């Protein structure tokens, strides 16, 4: 999936995001602006989607995020153009477990 981008030959990319949070506008009839962490790696800007409501609060600058493919064969999903990655883990803790309150984010 990510091999065509020249990033990695696996479907998951584990890298520390030196991230800025940018807003990506949704397509036509949806007026939402989705905040997403962006990382500049190998002179390419990677933008990842943070699933679930409120999970963006668990991510901070210089946190290590595990990113997986989002959609079919690396294509964008739904009304978010150009976003083909999603965040799975934050600081080696599952984002789903953080959202449900089963685990806490490790302190740095």
Automatic annotation (TrEMBL):
Family annotation (Gene3D superfamilies): Nucleic acid-binding proteins
InterPro entries referenced in this protein's UniProt entry, alphabetically: NA-bd_OB-fold (IPR012340), Ribosomal_uS12 (IPR006032)
Statement: the UniProt record of this protein carries the keyword Ribonucleoprotein: yes
Key words of the record: Ribonucleoprotein, Ribosomal protein
Molecular function per GO: structural constituent of ribosome
GO biological process entries: translation
Protein name (Swiss-Prot/TrEMBL): Small ribosomal subunit protein uS12
Compartments in which it is found: Rough endoplasmic reticulum
Annotated family: Belongs to the universal ribosomal protein uS12 family.
GO cellular component, one term: cytosolic ribosome
């Amino acid at each position: 999936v990510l091999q065509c981008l020249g990033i990695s030959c696996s479907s998951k990319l584990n890298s520390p995001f030196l991230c800025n949070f940018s807003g990506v506008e949704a397509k036509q009839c949806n007026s939402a602006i989705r905040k997403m962490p962006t990382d500049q790696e190998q002179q390419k800007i990677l933008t990842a989607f943070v699933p679930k409501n409120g999970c963006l609060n668990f991510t901070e600058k210089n946190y290590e995020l595990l990113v997986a493919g989002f959609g079919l064969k690396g294509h964008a999903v739904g009304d978010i153009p150009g976003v083909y990655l999603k965040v799975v883990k934050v600081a080696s803790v599952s984002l789903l477990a953080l959202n449900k309150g089963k685990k806490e984010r490790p302190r740095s």
